[in-house]
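Researcher: Structure for this, please.
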Amino acid sequence: MAIHAVILPEENSKVVDLINEHYPFNYSINDQCFLVRTEQISERVATILGFTDINGVEEGAHGAVLKLNGAHSGLAAPGLWEWLASRNEK
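Model: Predicted structure, token format:
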């Protein structure tokens, strides 16, 4: 399974509801950045969350989905590192 970062340019409660519905074991870094673990590719996650651009016409929410490569470093809340460790064990 892969871990994806979902990044929102602004708070969006509809997208957050979709994240919680489809990825209930997500980790919220803040109201605009979430980590999700799934077998889906980034494009599928983006589609589920409504980040679509059909024929050049923006129809959905704005946001980005980035697949993480497993390397991470930094200074953050202990919960982030615990969440990453628990997801990498599975």
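Researcher: Any notable elements?
Model: The helical segments are 13-22, 42-48, 78-89. The radius of gyration is 13 Å.
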